[in-house]
Amino acid sequence: MTTLLGPAPLTAPRVSGDLPGPRSTALLAHQERWESNARTYPRHLPIALAEGSGSFVRDVDGNVFIDFLAGAGVLSLGHNHPELVRAVRHQLDSLTHGLDFPTPAKDAFTQAQLSMLAPEPRERTRLHFCGPTGANAVEAAIKLCKIATGRGDIISFQGAFHGSTHATMALSGPVSQKAPVRDGMPGVHFFPYTASDQDVGSVSGADLLEQALRDSDGGIPPPAAVIMEMVQGEGGNFVARTDFVRKVREVTRSLGIPLIVDEVQTGCGRTGTWFAYQQYGIEPDVIVASKALSGIGLPVALILYDTALDTWAPGAHIGTFRGNQLAFAAGVETVRVIRRDGILGNVRRQGDRIADRLAGLTRDPWVRQVRGRGLMWGIELADPRDGRPATEVAAAVQHHALRHGLIVERGGRGDAVVRLLPPLNVTAEVVDMACSILVDAVSAGAGRSPVR
Ligand SMILES: Cc1ncc(COP(=O)(O)O)c(C=O)c1O
């Protein structure tokens, strides 16, 4: 909607008429005509986007939504944060692309990234700027470890998601995505992921890992690396159990296996600390970071790793788009604003608020669990009769939420986990609006099921 003073500010959701509206319908039809069958988000969220501001986005028909997808966790300070926009505009006037030459913007960005680490690991850390996606940085991490150790096998965890390239798919859990792509990267072994909802003291994936790796006949040669997420985001928002993570670290350290933590989704403050591993009292050998690094959706990805692994040769992981100066400028500003505005504290406070607002949902027989950390939340829907993923109920919840002005994504097994990834500077007011839409959506979505 446009007023005499310009577009109305985006402060509350407002959806009128059917979705998609007429303009969205036209653009979605163009997309269907010209784009690949592999496109994803608009299949579940059938809207065409026009503009965004903070936690809100407006579609081309003038409908306003709370955006709790936030570019799949990329927009840490929401859409078009004015200070980030200003930093990008300023950088535009001097340099936009710099390959891997040093530049003032890159140097400031490097220092901003290092400032997130504790002093001791910081001194031992090296950075490599990768091609601008999370998957490219995961590829770099496994290449680094393979080269440094001279070994070939990699250990990953069930339910993991590390990307959509050929090798990162091999490291990921979803079998249906891997099955049609024959001859994936060999030498990947999966162990169970132990989430915080499993009883402390029960056998963890790390116990099984240790057993296999210490057994001379365990079937797995000493691997080049173990890769893990602290919260499996795409896998359904499972938060790792503390003793599981610590034991993985203990075992890998004692056997001389580099530990890669994939913080593509959990990094840059998403769980309430700069990196999620910092809540587990461990130090990894390699950190993979991407998504929220620029805070405004400009692509950038990197790995931070122990200098002892830095044995690869010049040019071992190259890529044309490793020097996005606009992303660097925005990223420096993101870190500054997060510190200045105490946004890590906001992540923890709003995370607690979401937990509180959604706690009552578990009384619904279709809600198996509400779980999360910081500003990564998931509502898992399961059929109360047999415990299977309630895919259709989750789809109905997502649809109902969209109809009422809230964008949320789904993930996990059977896409039955409704996922929330709000901007890190989301306000209590917006959290309340979103949660009340969600509570209604769950009751409407589950209400359609035969068990009620
Ligand atoms: C943990 C994790 N690793 C890697 C990736 C892949 O990142 P990208 O989509 O930028 O390649 C994702 C994407 O969601 C992710 O969540």
Automatic annotation (TrEMBL):
Keywords on record: Aminotransferase, Pyridoxal phosphate, Transferase
UniProt cofactor(s): pyridoxal 5'-phosphate
Tagged with keyword Transferase: yes
Residue ranges the record marks as coiled coil: none
InterPro entries the UniProt entry points to: Aminotrans_3, Aminotrans_3_PPA_site, Dat, PyrdxlP-dep_Trfase, PyrdxlP-dep_Trfase_major, PyrdxlP-dep_Trfase_small
Family matches, as Gene3D superfamilies: Aspartate Aminotransferase, domain 1, Type I PLP-dependent aspartate aminotransferase-like (Major domain)
UniProt keyword annotation of Signal present: no
EC class: transferase
Pathway: Amine and polyamine biosynthesis; ectoine biosynthesis; L-ectoine from L-aspartate 4-semialdehyde: step 1/3
Enzyme Commission number(s) of this protein: 2.6.1.76
Homology family: Belongs to the class-III pyridoxal-phosphate-dependent aminotransferase family.
Name of the molecule in the record: Diaminobutyrate--2-oxoglutarate transaminase
Lineage: Bacteria, Bacillati, Actinomycetota, Actinomycetes, Kitasatosporales
